[in-house]
Amino acid sequence: MAKIQKVLVVNRGEIAVRILRALADLGKRGAVIYSDPDRAGLPVMLADEAYRIGPAPSSESYLRSEAIIELAGQIGADAIHPGYGFLSENANFARQCREAGILFIGPSPEAMAVMGSKVESRRMMMDAGVPVVPGGRDPLPDLEAARQAAVQLGYPVMLKAASGGGGKGMRRVAEESELAAAFRAARSEAMASFGDDAVYLEKFIDRPRHVEIQVLGDQHGRVVSLGERECSLQRRQQKVVEEAPSPAVSPQLRQRMGEAAVKAAEAVGYTNAGTVEFLLDADGESFFFLEMNTRLQVEHPVTEMVTGLDLVEWQLRIAEGEPLPAEMAAIEPRGHAIEVRLYAEDPYRRFAPSPGRIDVLRLPQGPGIRNDCGVYEGCEVTIHYDPMLAKLIAWGADRSQALRRMGRALRELRVEGIHTTAALYLRLLEDRDFVAGNLDIGMLDRKLAAGELDLSDPANPDLAPIAAALAHFARTSRTTASYPGRGRRTSWRHAARRESLHGGGRWI
Ligand code: MV4
Predict the structure, then answer these.
(1) Which end of the chain is less congested by CB atoms within 10 angstroms, N or C?
(2) Would you say 48 and 58 are in contact if contact means Cβ atoms under 8 Å apart?
(3) Is 202 exposed, middle or buried (CB count within 10 Å of its CB: 0-12, 13-18, 19+)?
(4) Considering only CA atoms, which residue is closest to atom 14 of ligand 1?
(5) Position in ligand 1 atom list of the atom nearest CA 165
(6) Any ligand 1 atom below 6 A from CB of 439
(7) pLDDT (tens digit, 9 = 90+) per residue, 15-65?
(8) Which CATH number fits domain 209-450: 1.10.10.10, 3.40.50.300, 3.20.20.370, 3.30.470.20?
(9) From 3.30.1490.20, 3.10.310.30, 3.30.1490.100, 3.10.330.10, which CATH number describes the 134-203 domain?
(10) Which residue of 155, 158, 278 sits with most ligand 1 atoms within 8 Å of its CB, as the best mutation to test the pocket?
């Protein structure tokens, strides 16, 4: 197969930057599309070529599959890299690319279609001998069937949308008296979200971890596992921190999970990069297939840091028909990597969106630190797209060094003009459960709800009285006068909040 010369990157933000860098490293041309608010974005600056695709709404820009494929043809791109989100898991788009003679950097549309359906992929995995969550093989015809299945499984159970994914149409049912209402609710939510009201039942798994396996499959039938990522730290089903390896996975368990993931990928003839998601039971031994993500994931850098591989490079090599070297299957994780996602959200205001101009941006540097960043100082963060600005990744010889380095990175980081979630991560690094590696998928939400993650600056306890005084002033004062130099709309209450975060004369 001929080498790819030029790739059209159909994405924005940090992942478009990441892909453009890989292309530059391989000596290939990188073109990018952009919407109106992204015209001065970092991907446009770094690309060899950039093309306007439409106005802000994704449906009129990054999701315009036909216009995108036409553009790829016009500019002579051999391939499209979809990144994550947008068109990345759309089997029809992959099919359209194929029909237009453009390489889609990803698996076949057929593999994407199977993994896009919950019941179909579950059935396929059952037949392939991959452990799935105990439960039904087919959608439930009616409430009576649900009742019988639930009794057989034993409560609590989980109702899930057959066409679903991402938690929509999902209902936990603690006992039989709740079943009828939950069945109706799950059905209508499934219909509203996926245009299909089919639901099925699973045993509810209590306080599991979310552990996923990175796989690569070439076009010659070889699939390899590149080990796991621990992704249990989520806020409302949105990942915030990921690490590799998982503190809960022994070499033996890694072997078993890796073999299951390879079996899952082989069962659908998987090619290119993919991720097999598992729930790891609280017993630390049993694991269950949840779904397979048929794209490059946000958290791929932690795998890169512990394997030394460039996953985007391998995506391109696989697309060019290169076989995976047999030795790749024997890679063991080296050291430890952790990633935090920097969101333009205010953790002091229930994670409200925080758009605006980034007045100051100083990214951390030094040994073991990597930044995958989609923004620059002076740029505007809009409300039109996902609020993730950047990822900070720290590598260490072991977990404790990686965590210390992440602490250093977060203290070096300066972002002014907008709020970010950085302060939450500094606090998390001091949390006993997190430091001990005792994680489960509900941990962060429980701690946030319990107010356990106090968001005052842990490194500057001597500022607490100042913060308290300012907070008192904010409560008792009627004024909304502006805080010097912080802009018209910044109230004293706001200033007090910021003051509690102030460390050594600098803002975090
Ligand atoms: C579950 C579960 C417990 N038991 N299924 C949430 C999203 C969807 N992809 C699957 N999800 C879950 N399915 C059973 N039988 C708990 C979750 C779940 C979850 C899973 C992975 C990562 C974060 C999560 C947060 C809440 C619930």
Answers:
(1) N
(2) no
(3) buried
(4) 204
(5) 9
(6) no
(7) 999 999 999 999 999 999 999 999 999 999 999 999 999 999 999 999 999
(8) 3.30.470.20
(9) 3.30.1490.20
(10) 158
